[in-house]
């Protein structure tokens, strides 16, 4: 069975620095996901440049199926070594997960990756390899739905050193904290933000080192097909509805006109649900065979606002979780974020005069702008998005 790798990351800059000395690169290929975290020696601009070079070299070579020896030799030959400290300028962790569920983990001088299975911390079998005078940890193991991995830089395990905690947070304590986070149903984005926020608190909001967390969650692929807006040509109505109902996974309709088209083509009634009222979002509806029916522009716009709050920005600790409210926007945002891995958007191009001056170009349509932003946000959050216009 194929698996879907959902991943995101968050970092803290060392206090007083303009740039973070850690860098992350996440690449998806047709058959795998490659994640590289590099920690440049020191902090600031030089560390940022060197860690950027490291992630680019490693991710590009792994994408081209180069073996570990070639990757490490290339990085050693390309990146300098500090003459005074005699240390490599950048440590790194490389994780490659195939769509079949095979994981290959390579670590050089970074803290050991946290691997949680059924909410419990486990340690995969490790072998050590010496390449060009560098000792690497290497693990190969099978992963399954629900497994989580957290790749961190040493700024996480050293959080609070010399301040709140004399010896820092330590690897074991970080692992126990992640186990506690896993006791409640939380998205990988929320867990990353909670962990990095805890680091900031331990540093008393003045990080003494760059700190980065990459979160990875293994899911079974779940497709959500969302139809919004009537097609520009009414003769396309039947085709769009057939495409919607024949699609795998969850089916969503956003917009009154779109809902009427679906109900007419399926010969079903639309029932309005007035049980959960939110003054910001119109009520949801029900159509037999459709998983979620909502109003259009207002609900989509509110959904985008909720997703925008989840965008993981550098050192931005302002984070709002998506509530479990039953209004249309919260239901749609939770469906897209927590269940969906692939989103197929079926977007009608007909212009609603209430939302748009018909004399203005189609590209300026409010609905199309909102849909485009939603697609971009979900792609940033690790989802695979396709858009088809009618």
Mean pLDDT value: 88
N-C termini distance: 33 Å
Give the strand order of the largest sheet, numbering strands 1, 2, ... along the chain. Answer: 2-3-4-5-9-8
Radius of gyration: 24 Å
Q: Approximately what portion of the residues adopt beta-strand conformation?
A: 25-35%
Backbone structural class: alpha+beta
Order of H and E elements: EEEHHEEEEEEEHHHEEHEHEEEHHEHE
Low-confidence stretches: 314-319, 360-364
Give the number of helices.
10
Largest sheet: 6 strands, antiparallel
Counting DSSP E segments of at least 2 residues, the number of strands comes to 18
- Tell the overall outline: elongated
The portion of residues assigned to helices is 25-40%
Walk me through the structure.
It is a single chain. It is built from ten helices and 18 strands. Residues 314-319 and 360-364 have low confidence and may be disordered. The protein has a six-stranded antiparallel β-sheet. Strands 1-11-10-6-7 form a five-stranded antiparallel β-sheet. Helix content is 31%, strand content 28%. Helix 8 runs parallel beside helix 10. The longest helix has 20 residues, at 44-63. The chain has 390 residues and is an alpha+beta fold. The chain has helices spanning 44-63, 68-78, 154-157, 171-181, 188-202, 237-245, 256-266, 297-308, 328-339, 366-380, and strands spanning 4-12, 22-29, 32-40, 90-98, 102-108, 114-117, 120-122, 127-131, 134-142, 148-152, 211-219, 223-228, 250-254, 271-273, 284-286, 292-294, 342-347, 384-389.
Give a short summary of the structure:
The chain is an alpha+beta fold and 390 residues long.
């Amino acid at each position: 069975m194929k698996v879907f790798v959902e991943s995101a990351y968050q970092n803290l800059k060392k206090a007083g620095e303009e740039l973070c000395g850690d860098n992350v690169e996440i690449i998806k290929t047709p058959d795998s996901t490659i994640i590289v975290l590099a920690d440049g020696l020191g902090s600031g601009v030089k560390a940022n440049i060197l860690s950027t070079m490291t992630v680019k070299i490693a991710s590009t070579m792994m994408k081209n199926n180069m073996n570990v020896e070639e990757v490490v030799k290339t990085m050693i030959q390309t990146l300098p070594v500090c003459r005074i400290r005699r240390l490599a300028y950048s440590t790194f962790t490389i994780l490659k997960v195939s769509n079949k569920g095979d994981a290959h983990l390579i670590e050089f001088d970074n803290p050991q990756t946290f691997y949680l299975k059924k909410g419990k911390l486990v340690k995969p079998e490790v072998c050590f390899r010496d390449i060009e005078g560098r000792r690497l940890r290497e693990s190969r193991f099978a992963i399954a739905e629900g497994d989580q991995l957290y790749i961190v830089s040493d700024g996480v395990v050293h959080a609070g050193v010399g301040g709140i905690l004399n010896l820092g947070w330590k690897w074991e304590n970080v692992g126990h904290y992640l186990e506690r986070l896993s006791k409640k149903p939380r998205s990988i984005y929320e867990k990353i933000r909670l962990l990095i926020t805890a680091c900031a608190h331990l540093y008393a909001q003045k990080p003494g080192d760059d700190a980065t967390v990459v979160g990875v969650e293994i899911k079974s692929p779940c497709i959500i097909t969302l139809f919004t807006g009537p097609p520009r040509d009414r003769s396309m109505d039947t085709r769009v509805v057939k495409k919607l109902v024949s699609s795998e996974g969850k089916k969503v309709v956003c917009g009154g006109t779109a809902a009427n088209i679906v109900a007419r083509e399926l010969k079903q009634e639309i029932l309005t649900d007035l049980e959960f009222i939110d003054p910001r979002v119109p009520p949801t509806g029900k159509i037999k065979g459709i998983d979620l029916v909502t109003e259009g522009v207002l609900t989509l716009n509110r959904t985008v606002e909720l997703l925008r709050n989840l965008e993981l920005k550098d050192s931005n600790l302002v984070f709002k979780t998506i509530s479990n409210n039953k209004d249309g926007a919260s239901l749609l945002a939770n469906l897209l974020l927590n269940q969906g891995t692939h989103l197929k958007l079926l977007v009608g191009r007909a212009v609603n005069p209430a939302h748009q001056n018909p004399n203005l170009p189609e590209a300026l349509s409010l609905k199309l702008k909102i849909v485009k932003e939603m697609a971009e946000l979900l792609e940033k959050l690790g989802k695979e998005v396709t858009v088809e216009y009618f």
